């Protein structure tokens, strides 16, 4: 049952990351990867809420492990940071690396506090 | 090194890459279904590893750490390979990159595990995990990309 719930959450979370990324990226011209930044912060906020609530096993599998896990990504984030460095945008790369981690952690703390 | 003319920053979808811009107009259901299928596989693999190696709130989240570092190494390998073959199959990036590796790695669990270690009174673990994942992921993606690109160039030159 847990496996099915994780699968269902991920089946929605992964395409939603792609669609959100597209929507955000089409609305600005900067080299900064706001699309991935956005999904990572929103996913961290939501998972903070789920852990602080706290959600049961089934909801945790569906929305936490499945949905939030697949909505957010470390691989896309790290590759974008690498490409920013390669493209000569060293400051943006640094801002992306430190900004994503700081904003993600702040969002997780906020979500946890809101739910508690 | 990847091709210098490749404008791509975002491996999920980069609107400066014409093929990426078009892919949702041509066959949206196929692309989104492929991403979902890959995402399910990646998420299940992640959940399985997290289940096999659980951690206490004050402990170091080794499973998620390994998942994120290996996923970052593999996105470097994948994108260098796809760049080498001129993009590859139109569904290769959506399935393997956006789906499998995007679903496998996670930023939310990383952020919340750091927060949980802080709440549990283990700031040392929190800071070590936060820094080790970030630095490890960046080294892994750079290594995956550079090693793959070098290997493929050497093979092509033979």
TrEMBL record, chain A:
Na(+) binds at residues 69, 72. It is found in: Cell membrane. One of its GO terms (cellular component) is plasma membrane. GO terms for molecular function: fluoride channel activity; metal ion binding. Pfam families: CRCB (PF02537). Na(+) is not transported, but it plays an essential structural role and its presence is essential for fluoride channel function. Signal peptide: none annotated. The chain crosses the membrane at residues 32-51, 58-79, 91-115. The keyword Ubl conjugation does not apply. GO terms for biological process: cellular detoxification of fluoride. It catalyses: fluoride(in) = fluoride(out). Keywords: Cell membrane, Ion channel, Ion transport, Membrane, Metal-binding, Sodium, Transmembrane, Transmembrane helix, Transport. InterPro entries: FluC. It is a multi-pass membrane protein. Fluoride-specific ion channel. Important for reducing fluoride concentration in the cell, thus reducing its toxicity. Belongs to the fluoride channel Fluc/FEX (TC 1.A.43) family. This is Fluoride-specific ion channel FluC. The gene is crcB.
UniProtKB/TrEMBL annotation, chain B:
Keywords: Cell membrane, Ion channel, Ion transport, Membrane, Metal-binding, Sodium, Transmembrane, Transmembrane helix, Transport. It is found in: Cell membrane. One of its GO terms (cellular component) is plasma membrane. It is a multi-pass membrane protein. GO terms for biological process: cellular detoxification of fluoride. GO terms for molecular function: fluoride channel activity; metal ion binding. It holds the Pfam family CRCB. Na(+) binds at residues 102, 105. It catalyses: fluoride(in) = fluoride(out). The chain crosses the membrane at residues 29-48, 60-83, 95-112, 127-152. InterPro entries: FluC (IPR003691). Fluoride-specific ion channel. Important for reducing fluoride concentration in the cell, thus reducing its toxicity. Belongs to the fluoride channel Fluc/FEX (TC 1.A.43) family. This is Fluoride-specific ion channel FluC. It comes from Micromonospora orduensis.
């Amino acid at each position: 049952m847990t496996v099915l719930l994780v699968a269902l959450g991920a089946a929605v979370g992964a395409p939603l990351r792609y669609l959100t990324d597209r929507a955000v990226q089409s609305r600005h011209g900067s080299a900064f990867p706001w699309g991935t930044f956005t999904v990572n912060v929103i996913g961290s906020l939501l998972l903070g809420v789920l852990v602080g609530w706290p959600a049961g096993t089934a909801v945790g599998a569906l929305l936490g492990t499945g949905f939030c896990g697949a909505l957010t990504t470390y691989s896309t984030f790290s590759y974008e940071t690498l490409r920013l460095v390669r493209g000569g945008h060293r400051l943006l790369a640094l801002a992306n690396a430190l900004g994503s981690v700081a904003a993600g952690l702040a969002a997780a703390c906020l979500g946890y506090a809101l739910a508690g | 090194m990847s091709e210098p003319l490749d404008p791509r920053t975002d491996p999920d979808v980069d609107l400066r890459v014409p093929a990426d811009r078009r892919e949702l107009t041509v066959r949206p259901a196929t692309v989104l279904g492929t991403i979902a299928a890959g995402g399910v596989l990646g998420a299940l693999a992640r959940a399985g590893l997290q289940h096999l190696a659980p951690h206490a709130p004050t402990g170091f989240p080794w499973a998620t750490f390994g998942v994120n570092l290996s996923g970052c190494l593999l996105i470097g390998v994948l994108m260098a390979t796809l760049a080498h073959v001129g993009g590859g199959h139109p569904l290769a990036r959506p399935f393997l990159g956006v789906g499998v590796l995007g679903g496998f790695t996670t930023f939310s669990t990383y952020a919340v595990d750091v927060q949980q270690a802080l709440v549990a009174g283990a700031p040392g673990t929190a800071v070590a995990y936060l820094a080790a994942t970030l630095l490890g992921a960046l080294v892994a993606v750079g290594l995956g990309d550079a090693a793959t690109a070098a290997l493929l160039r050497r093979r092509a030159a033979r």
